[in-house]
Amino acid sequence: MIILRDIELRRGKKLLLHHANVTIQPGQKLALIGANGCGKSSLLFLLLGELGADAGDIEGLQTQRLAHMAQEIHATSLPAAEYVWRGDEQLAALHDRIADLEASGEFEQAAKVHSQLEDIDGYSAERRALRLLQGLGFAEDAGQRLVSEFSGGWRIRLNLARALMTPSDILLLDEPTNHLDLDATLWLQQWLQQYPGTLLMISHDRDFIDASCERILHIEQQQLHPYKGNYSDFERMRAERMANQQASFEKQQRRIAHIDEFVSRFRYKATKAKQAQSRLKELQRMQKLEPAHVDSPFDFTFPPPEKSSDPLLKLDKASLGYGDKAILSGVDLCLRPGSRYGLLGRNGAGKSTLLKTLIGELPLLQGELTCGQYLTIGYFDQQQLEALDLDASAFLHLQRLSPDARDQDILDFLGSFNFRGDTATAAISPFSGGEKARLALALVVWQKPNLLVLDEPTNHLDLDMRHAMEIALHAYEGALILVTHDRHLLRNTAEELLLVHDGGVEEYAEDLEGYERWILTSYRSPDRQQAASSDSSRREKRQQSASLRDKLRPLRRQLASTEREMEKVDANLRELQEQLGDEALYSSAEKDALADLLRREGRLKARCTELEDVWLQQQQQLDELSD
């Protein structure tokens, strides 16, 4: 076991840990969580021996083999596969020894080393390295490419593969899903479930934590707080504790009111058959767990768009790609105010091609792209971080966008993203990746877009910021199209799923859990190529899905009509209840008017109840037909 006793740890003048204690049992899988800057990465460096504790002791590491995911790759001309398998230092040493012996003609000695290599299964190393690369989303020929040919995000994936290749008793991972898409995240999740050693992982992906970890280690107020169970268990336990703290009561009530407003607005909009009931359950769960985030420093909203068009943007029979090469063909997509799409698809299927076409970076090869008169796109991807001016402050970034805005309005807005005081007005060059991501997102929000196009917006964001983004997106009135490996965010903000696959874009008839099962089944197959060759089976499945959509379409239209009427009745009821709030109505002179309003209120409430019953019956028909 590993014992941290009375640890004190500083970075510069900042005290990160003070008399911190924790015991980690062999084989445990722990997620290390906490606000940005609380010391998570520093704790990993401490365990790796790259930082020394200012006080306290660590026991139990001396005999343990550690593997970790480096955040940088030094210049190397090695092929990618060899770079990965050289993570196994013993294996690499034996290979180098054999090469030296054979070069000097000492073949008898080389034969003995070959035997040692066989004892550690060294001859399968290349195959195992290629399997890791494939699981993490690399192309089939990537193993032969030089490391220097890969971009920054792909080099981080190479480091992750190298860490997984390294034989270890303890595996330390720092935000391993940051540069992964959803498919690679699911593969890594499955790999970690089978890892026999001790895992300590920094992650802000709650679904990934839930599936991979059995313990939570929370850094809070310079202490290490262990919790049994996964992140959902931690959130529930912390919610119970925070709900009992009276000092947080008022903020808690404001947050819960915000959630209640979202529930009221979206309760009858989960029209996708297999997601409807689970969405309602998730909303109820959110209300119960909101107190766990009551002390979050983030509390921002997307302002309503100033103007809008219907539709905002439309693709008709479009072919998308680069130069003369079409990546996607026959694409039909209509984005209207309130549309909420999540994009699914394997790496390289064309998700980025679709997004870049929507925002105007790529011209159409064929077909038609129609933009509404008042279309305003807010686009976020990781390149936005690189476009930030490191010498400018967060305040100056916003002021450049809106020179006429009041200084206090800008500062108040930045405060909702936890940029306060000097952090808002000083140069952003010292900002962490998470702080830069927050600022880039703030710039998008500030411009009041009516179409949000978000490509992996949660990279580098901690759990509280992700929660705040989720709440803000719930109340967002514009259209949303989202690519993310964060399944929790995808499940709770997208109402419809689109699958980018086999050169096309189609509505995905299953729910997100169905997609997970499909991806994980393909990874479990002993021969991925065999799975990839089953085109006829997939065609049959698409035909079945198309037939199902034809049957579901009229039911969905009926359901949509019911939802529109419910919204209308609900709006009338709210307006009438506002009138009933007028104290003057309760004078004797207004008794007839009051009686009339009360009768109308009764009729509207009865109609609400009738429509709820109709909605539930229609939804049940959809569910039964979908099953």
Give a structural overview:
With 627 residues, the protein is α/β, with parallel strands linked by helices. Among the domains are: 73-167, no CATH class; 313-512, P-loop containing nucleotide triphosphate hydrolases (Rossmann fold), CATH 3.40.50; 551-626. Helix content is 48%, strand content 18%. The strands form four sheets. A six-stranded mixed sheet has the order 5-6-7-3-8-9, sandwiched between helices. Strands 14-15-16-12-17-18 form a six-stranded mixed sheet, sandwiched between helices. Helix 14 (394-401) crosses helix 15. The longest helix has 46 residues, at 535-580. The protein is globular, with a radius of gyration of 28 Å. Mean pLDDT is 81; it is low at 270-279 and 525-536.
CATH fold node name of the domain at 313-512:
Rossmann fold
Main β-sheet, spatial strand arrangement: 5-6-7-3-8-9
> Treating each run of at least 4 consecutive H or I residues as one helix, how many helices?
23
Q: Roughly what percent helix?
A: 40-55%
The largest pleated sheet is described as: 6 strands, mixed
Structural class, from helix and strand content? alpha/beta
**Number of separate strands:** 18
Into which percentage range does the β-strand content fall? 15-25%
> Gyration radius, to the nearest Å?
28 Å
Low-confidence stretches: 270-279, 525-536
Instruction: Quickly give the CATH architecture of the domain at 313-512.
Output: 3-Layer(aba) Sandwich
Kindly report how far apart the N and C termini lie: 48 Å
Q: Kindly provide the name of the CATH class of the domain at 313-512.
A: Alpha Beta
Q: So what's the overall shape? A: globular
CATH homologous superfamily classification of the domain at 313-512? P-loop containing nucleotide triphosphate hydrolases
What's the overall average pLDDT, rounded? 81
Region (Disordered): 529-566
InterPro entries: AAA+_ATPase, ABC_tran_Xtn, ABC_transporter-like_ATP-bd, ABC_transporter-like_CS, ABCF, P-loop_NTPase
Domain ABC transporter: 2-246, 313-527
Organism: Candidatus Marimicrobium litorale
